[in-house]
Design goal:
Length: 207
């Protein structure tokens, strides 16, 4: 029995196509062949290419299984870790995730749940969105750099007269363990610096 077509199936097929053949291979005609229908049929599920790309971003983020509950730094950290993990599974989609804003109802509902949890932890609504944006931007940017071409990580670089860089390279700069350590180090610093503004002002008040 032929599997019934749905938006979810269309997006899953599109993600599989991008994973296998890259973003340039993604077209409505090519995607139609993937799911066994004419390209025009797809427009019932995704009205245009932009909607398709927005749906792919939503699909990737929907796989981030982090419940915004408990101590906020713990689940926000888990969110950042999961963003990186998902993007490393779909490196061809990273440029899309990096430049497309959250736009679909499904994605916005995820942001709403996270923002609500942060407001319950003492952040204002605006501050809650600042936290989500800062952490997501960090995780996406770090992963883009991690998956991109090497530069200072390249062991063939001429580091004569640069003892600090040479020592870092010798210690394993650019290895998977190094990427993990960089991510953890920067994420901890970011989270430790985030707090509701009224808490920051109170901590800075004399006496």
């Amino acid at each position: 029995m032929k599997e019934r077509l749905s938006r979810e199936r269309v997006l899953a097929a599109a993600l599989g196509l991008v994973d296998r053949e890259g973003l340039r291979a993604l077209s409505m005609r090519r995607l139609g062949k993937e799911v066994g229908v004419e390209a025009m049929t797809l427009y019932y599920y995704v009205p245009n290419k932009d909607a398709l790309l927005d749906g792919l971003v939503e699909l990737v983020f929907s796989r981030i299984a982090v419940e915004p509950a408990g101590e906020w730094r713990a689940w926000v950290r888990a969110f950042a870790v999961s963003v990186r993990d998902q993007l490393l599974r779909h490196p061809e989609l990273m440029p899309v995730v990096a430049i497309r804003p959250v736009a679909t109802p499904g994605s916005l509902r995820m942001v709403e749940r996270a923002a609500r949890a942060l407001t319950e932890a003492g952040f204002t609504a605006s501050e809650a969105l600042h936290v989500i944006t800062a952490v997501a931007t960090f995780a996406i940017g770090h992963t883009l750099a991690e998956a991109g071409p090497d530069s200072p990580d390249n062991p063939d670089m001429d580091l004569d007269g640069m003892p600090v860089l040479a020592e870092a390279v010798a210690a394993g700069l650019g290895t998977p363990a190094d990427h993990q350590d960089r991510f953890d180090f920067a994420l901890d610093a970011l989270l430790n610096g985030l707090a509701p503004r009224h808490d920051i002002h109170r901590a800075g008040s004399p006496g």
